[in-house]
């Protein structure tokens, strides 16, 4: 069949057989498939869906579109975690070095921003010199010496996901079980893991809006990973409110460093989520917390970013407890706008969809696949859910390069409507809804 025939078959609601799926996926790398084919096929899949058999075939064809990593010397200790995407979701950034500090090996193939959700790789690229595309040799070197690396799909590692991911991001075809499952698991199954934790999010800014949808996605992820022979556990977590205090790229690296430095005032919300995600490893939670308290996670992060191209000077400076030294590297946008509370009370919710959209539109995310990310824009929240606030007290700071435009004042209006204050006390957030083992 021709590529347009395959698209037509899916458009008309028929099941594609494994050979047809393989033809389409290998076409992404051999030149038979063009961007317009990809956009049309993704939309057909989005609307028509895929059977269990199709999802498995798609995941395996994507996994096999390039090479696979192998860790025979580290059997039993190769682990990773992946999230379906959220706002302020920087969990992977402190978690990978923390796991490495606990003697695990973490070959983390991460993603870029999708829609309004930020991407681990985009955030890390706000560190000058940090490279996300590594050769196989560099990955092996990093894992054997440091223990962790956070890198991207490449021309050699899962080129199919690299291609599909970029086009999904800009064609409104992200939130579909078949596409999310194949994207995540094709990446993770290349890593040759002993254990995988998946964080499946639901809420206003997640791809899955309800806990039920997230549970269905989690079940799919669980089922397909089992078929691929990967031991996986899924956390289903709340994503109505942003995670931690910071949303953006450079600003989320700063916040991740604050946790790894165990700085006074670091986000407890972020700390708990990071630690909770390893509670299935015996005493994992406290082990991870200890690596933040004793600085070993920070050391691993330092060594990892050097291993991925940052200079020693930059890496050393990022360890500094002096905010101006760190700030000079992770340059935040110079214009700061404070959002003030319209009334006194307790913070009930902060709309992560609105906050994420503002950061994306200010340049922190992409609208076209060729868009360059502006690492410097972001939002710093000054409060967590449940905190008390006084009328006219600042609850957020927006960092931007753009002060005067009408577009900008629309964002400010949005910012002011993103908070909900209750006159009676509010319970702290329960992030974890369910765990599928
Ligand atoms: N993360 C991924 O890697 N892929 C998706 O499709 C969604 C989140």
TrEMBL record:
<comment type="function">
    <text>Catalyzes the reversible phosphorolysis of thymidine. The produced molecules are then utilized as carbon and energy sources or in the rescue of pyrimidine bases for nucleotide synthesis.</text>
</comment>
<dbReference type="GO" id="GO:0006213">
    <property type="term" value="P:pyrimidine nucleoside metabolic process"/>
</dbReference>
<dbReference type="InterPro" id="IPR000053">
    <property type="entry name" value="Thymidine/pyrmidine_PPase"/>
</dbReference>
<dbReference type="InterPro" id="IPR000312">
    <property type="entry name" value="Glycosyl_Trfase_fam3"/>
</dbReference>
<dbReference type="InterPro" id="IPR036320">
    <property type="entry name" value="Glycosyl_Trfase_fam3_N_dom_sf"/>
</dbReference>
<dbReference type="InterPro" id="IPR013102">
    <property type="entry name" value="PYNP_C"/>
</dbReference>
<dbReference type="GO" id="GO:0004645">
    <property type="term" value="F:1,4-alpha-oligoglucan phosphorylase activity"/>
</dbReference>
<dbReference type="GO" id="GO:0009032">
    <property type="term" value="F:thymidine phosphorylase activity"/>
</dbReference>
<dbReference type="Pfam" id="PF00591">
    <property type="entry name" value="Glycos_transf_3"/>
</dbReference>
<dbReference type="Pfam" id="PF02885">
    <property type="entry name" value="Glycos_trans_3N"/>
</dbReference>
<dbReference type="InterPro" id="IPR036566">
    <property type="entry name" value="PYNP-like_C_sf"/>
</dbReference>
<dbReference type="GO" id="GO:0005829">
    <property type="term" value="C:cytosol"/>
</dbReference>
<comment type="similarity">
    <text>Belongs to the thymidine/pyrimidine-nucleoside phosphorylase family.</text>
</comment>
<keyword id="KW-0328">Glycosyltransferase</keyword>
<comment type="pathway">
    <text>Pyrimidine metabolism; dTMP biosynthesis via salvage pathway; dTMP from thymine: step 1/2.</text>
</comment>
<dbReference type="InterPro" id="IPR018090">
    <property type="entry name" value="Pyrmidine_PPas_bac/euk"/>
</dbReference>
<comment type="subunit">
    <text>Homodimer.</text>
</comment>
<protein>
    <recommendedName>
        <fullName>Thymidine phosphorylase</fullName>
        <ecNumber>2.4.2.4</ecNumber>
    </recommendedName>
</protein>
<keyword id="KW-0808">Transferase</keyword>
<dbReference type="GO" id="GO:0006206">
    <property type="term" value="P:pyrimidine nucleobase metabolic process"/>
</dbReference>
<dbReference type="Pfam" id="PF07831">
    <property type="entry name" value="PYNP_C"/>
</dbReference>
<dbReference type="InterPro" id="IPR017459">
    <property type="entry name" value="Glycosyl_Trfase_fam3_N_dom"/>
</dbReference>
<dbReference type="InterPro" id="IPR017872">
    <property type="entry name" value="Pyrmidine_PPase_CS"/>
</dbReference>
<dbReference type="InterPro" id="IPR035902">
    <property type="entry name" value="Nuc_phospho_transferase"/>
</dbReference>
<feature type="domain" description="Pyrimidine nucleoside phosphorylase C-terminal">
    <location>
        <begin position="346"/>
        <end position="422"/>
    </location>
</feature>
């Amino acid at each position: 069949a021709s590529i347009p025939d395959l698209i037509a078959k899916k458009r008309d609601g028929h099941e594609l057989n494994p050979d047809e799926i393989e033809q389409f996926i290998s076409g992404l790398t051999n030149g038979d498939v063009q961007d317009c084919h990809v956009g049309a096929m993704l939309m057909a899949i989005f609307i028509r869906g895929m059977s269990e058999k199709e999802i498995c075939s798609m995941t395996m064809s994507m996994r096999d579109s390039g090479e696979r990593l192998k860790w025979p010397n580290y059997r039993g200790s190769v682990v990773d975690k992946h999230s379906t995407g959220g706002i302020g979701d920087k969990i992977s950034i402190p978690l990978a070095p923390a796991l490495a500090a606990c003697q695990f090996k973490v070959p983390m193939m991460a993603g870029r921003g999708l829609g309004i959700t930020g991407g681990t790789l985009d955030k890390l690229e706000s560190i000058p010199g940090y490279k996300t595309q590594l050769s196989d040799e560099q990955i092996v070197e990093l894992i054997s010496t440091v223990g962790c690396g956070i890198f991207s799909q490449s021309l050699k590692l899962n080129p199919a996901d690299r291609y599909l991911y970029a086009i999904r991001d800009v064609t409104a075809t992200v939130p579909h079980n078949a596409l999310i499952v194949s994207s995540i698991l094709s990446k993770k199954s290349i890593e040759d893991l002993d254990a995988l934790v998946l964080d499946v999010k639901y809420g206003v800014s997640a791809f899955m809006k309800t806990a039920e949808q997230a549970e269905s996605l989690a079940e799919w992820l669980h089922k397909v990973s089992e078929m691929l022979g990967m031991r996986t556990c899924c956390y289903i977590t709340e994503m109505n409110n942003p995670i931690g205090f910071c949303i953006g790229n450079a600003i989320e690296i700063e916040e991740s460093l604050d946790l790894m430095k165990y700085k006074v005032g670091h986000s407890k919300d972020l700390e708990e989520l990071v630690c909770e995600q390893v509670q299935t490893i015996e005493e994992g939670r406290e082990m991870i917390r200890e690596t933040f308290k004793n600085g070993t996670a920070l050391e691993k992060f330092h060594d990892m970013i050097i291993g991925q191209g940052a200079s020693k000077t930059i890496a050393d400076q990022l360890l500094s407890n002096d905010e101006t030294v760190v700030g000079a590297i992770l340059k935040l946008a110079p214009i700061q706008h404070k959002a003030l509370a319209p009334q006194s009370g307790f913070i009930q919710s902060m709309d992560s969809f609105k906050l994420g959209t503002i950061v994306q539109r200010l340049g922190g995310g992409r609208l076209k696949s060729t868009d360059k990310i502006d690492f410097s824009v972001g939002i710093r929240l000054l409060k967590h859910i449940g905190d008390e606030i006084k009328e006219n007290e600042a609850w957020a700071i927006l960092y931007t390069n753009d002060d005067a435009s009408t577009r900008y004042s629309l964002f400010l209006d949005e910012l002011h409507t993103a908070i909900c204050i209750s006159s009676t006390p509010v319970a702290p957030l329960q992030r974890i809804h369910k765990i599928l083992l």
